[in-house]
Structures are given as C-alpha cells and as structure tokens.
Write a structure and sequence with these properties.
Elements lengths: L4 H9 L1 H12 L11 H17 L3 E5 L3 E4 L2 E4 L3 E6 L7 E7 L19 E2 L6 E3 L7 H17 L6 E7 L9 H7 L10 E4 L11 E6 L1 E10 L5 E2 H4 L6 H9 L23 H9 L4 H8 L9 H9 L3 E8 L10 E2 L2 E10 L5 H19 L4 E10 L2 E2 L5 H14 L4 E5 L4 H10 L3 E3 L15 E3 H20 L4
Parallel strand pairs: 5-8, 5-9, 9-19, 10-18
Antiparallel strand pairs: 1-4, 2-3, 4-8, 6-7, 7-20, 10-17, 11-15, 11-16, 12-14, 13-15
Helix pairs in contact: 1-4, 1-14, 2-4, 4-14, 5-13, 12-14
Cofactor: Mn(2+)
Keywords: Hydrolase, Manganese, Metal-binding, Metalloprotease, Protease
GO biological process, one term: proteolysis
Length: about 475
Amino acid sequence: MAANPQFLKYVDDHQDDYIKRLSDAVAIASVSGNLSYVKDVEAMGEYLVQQLTALGATVEKRGIGKHTLEGKEVDLPPVIIGQVGNDPKKKTLLVYGHYDVQPALKEDGWLYPPFELTPDPKGSGKLYGRGSTDDKGPVLGWINVLEAHKNLGIELPVNLKMCFEGMEENGSVNLDKFIESEKDKFFSGVDCMCISDNYWLDTKTPCLTYGLRGINYYEIKINGPDRDLHSGVFGGTVHEPMTDLIALMSKLVTPTGEILVPGVKEMIAPLTDDEKAKFEAIHFAMSDIHGAVGGDVTISNDTVKTLMGRMRNPSLSLHGIEGAFSAPGSKTVIPCQVKGKFSIRLVPNLTVAGVTEHVVKYVKEEFAKLGSKNTLDVYLTHGGEPWIADPNHYSYRAAHKATEAVYGQTPDYTREGGSIPVTLDFANILGLNVLLLPVGRGDDGAHSTNEKIDTSNYINGTKLLGSYMYELAAISKD
C-alpha cells in the first residue's frame, strides 16, 4: 500500500514547521551523563509528553528508579510511553527512540553553539546541533508523522506504540527491567518493532540494518612492587609490571587484525551464500572509508572483505594503559601497577561468556610463560551480546518497499559494527523482529563535534517512517 499522497504533500508543505520543532528540541540540553543537566533531560521528556498529548496520543511518564550521578543519587529520566490506536484488525508497531544526548561544548571545536540548531550558512541544507541526528531528529520524525495524519483527519494505517527513554547515552539503566515489567502490559500485542538510531553507510544510499556486533571489554591488571620505583635505582633488578603488560597485549592481536586468542575464530558462524550476496550488493567504495578515517590505512583493499571486517567478523582493539606515565616530559618511573584495556567485538555464535572463557585462559597461560614474580588479574568489565534479525521478515520487506518509494533506490542491507544494547533487550524480552531503519547519513557525526542532520534526510526520513507504516499495514505476514 503506497503512502497516502496527502500525507506526503503535507510533509513537503510543512518543512519549516518541522525544522522549528527540531530547533526547539535541540535547544533543550538533555545531557544524561552530567548532573548539571538533570532538569534539562526531564524538560525534554516533558516536551515529548506535551507534543504527543497534543496530537491525540495516550501518554504516560514512567519512573524507573534512581542512579548515582557524579556522587549524587538522582531520579533516572522517565520513560515516555504513548499509544495511538488499538484496532484489532490492524498490525501494532512499536517504535523506540531516546531523547537524551551526548555532552557538547562550543570550545570542543563546534562551528556553532551546539544547543542552537544552525543551518549551514553555505546553503548545503545541513542542520548543525547536538541531538539533531542522534536521536532527536528521528524521534521527531514519528511526531511529524502523527501531526500530519491528525491535521489531515486521516487514521494511521497501523496501531502505534512508542517508547522513548532519556538514558540511552548513559547505559539505558533499568530499561531492561522496565521492558520485562511491561512485557504483558503496555508491550502486549505488538507485532514488530522499528528503531531509528543508526545511519546510512555512506551519504548517498539508504539502508536497512539487520545486525549489530556485541562487545566484551576487558582489563589486564599487573601488580608488582608496593610503590612506584626509580628506574635508575631499580631498573634491571625487578620484574616491571609495564614490561609484563606490553608483552601480554602484544599476544592478543596482529597488526593485520588477526585475533590470536585460541578458540575465538572457530566460534564464528559460517558465512551463508545469502549473507555474502548482501555484502556484495552494498553500495560501497574504498574511498568512503578512506574519507571517514582520514587516509588510506585499511587492512584490505577489497570492499567485501572490508565490509565484513566492519560488520560481520569479530575484531580485537587495544584501547589504553592505565597507571602509566603519559604527561608531557620525561619521568623515569617504574609504575607499580598498570592496567591494559582492550575489547573484542562479538558476532553471531560468539557469546559474552564463551569468549571470556577463552580470553582469561589464554592470558593466564601467556603470563605464566613470562616467569614473572608480579601478579596478574584479567577480567571482563562489561559485555553485550551480538544481535541479528531475519532480513526477510515482513517488516523488512515493508521497509524495503517504503525506501524504494521515497528514495527511488533499493536499500543496502547492512550490519553495524557498533552496539545498540536496547535492541537486544527488546528482541529477546519481547520476542520481536526488530528493524533498524536509519534516517541520518553516514557523515552525520553522532557523538562528535558538529553533529548534523541534512534537511533532505530529516524531511524524507519523516516520509519514510510514514510510508513504512503504510507498507507494513498492507503486507502479508507470510
């Protein structure tokens, strides 16, 4: 079912109104990880409540407990839940988004004040502002869709349930418990789910995302003497913790990215012909990644291998050393204790527990080979499982049709290299197929300075979300 042409025309005719709405939202500095912005996060939640209520949605703010922020116990930002329609003859779609943002200061290198939506004065259509693409723009896309239908007097083609949280940028604390508690209440009767909190792979080609890598984050701690030592006095007489740590970290991964931990590669799910075909069909050039990283430093020059390295295969990255001297100048210290930090991106069949078992065993064995009198501790600090959905599900087929209708292009089918932990929570707890339907482009700079969304993506993204609902209403579940 093609989208109602009145709806599409309404979106085109009200671009200025939608940009004003985004400007109002960006102006609320809803930084969830900073105590100074607690009231702003709450204000952003209240803004969404007011917007949704005015558009006829049944809306509730739900408290989900407290947390400690900068040493002070404060209420967690509320979860905003809303619903429009409960027709048993219609499919019920659940959508998720978040209304909190990353910190941003003008002095960090922003071209413009980060909490003032600023159109590019060069006329490119870029709209700069913190949260413009992550995730206020996409959240407001759903509100734009509701407003268009209400003002046109047109019923939504599906029943819509919405869940918007204010803690995603700070770990989505307690959201999993909320989902579990509402599994048979607010979330009952949902057919499928859509999240718009990711991005196109490039700047030209829309995509549908059906997988996310998980992550295991580890620390290796080496303890030696009970105090820092002078290398001129004690160098050559003691086992140095830093030397042990460097030796161990050099045994984890090769310069070409090969993971050296035994057993990890053997856990990877076999590549299917369907998977390989999807990677081969992606519109991607090596210049895209060269531009993103600022130079030709890729391990491979093959596009499919590079895409699979980013999306489908596990990777091990070394992140840093804590306790070592790192200030400018020269200091001849032997640190008494150091921590090495690294992570492994997980893919299907690599579980948090299974990979951790291999890592701990291997690091302990390698440490024993050093013959050091220092002591070792290696442990997982946090982990998240990988996620993959069925891209042939009717929800994906509906999104495919909607993308072709709005953009005149066949979407790429991608998997993200990073993690969106709530995706797994919703999929596992509610047993839903989850569609990741991005609005923004690959160069939007989420979490970075000068975050932006292109006007065309914001407006066409609104059309896409609405068109997806129409296609979802019409498509068979078979």
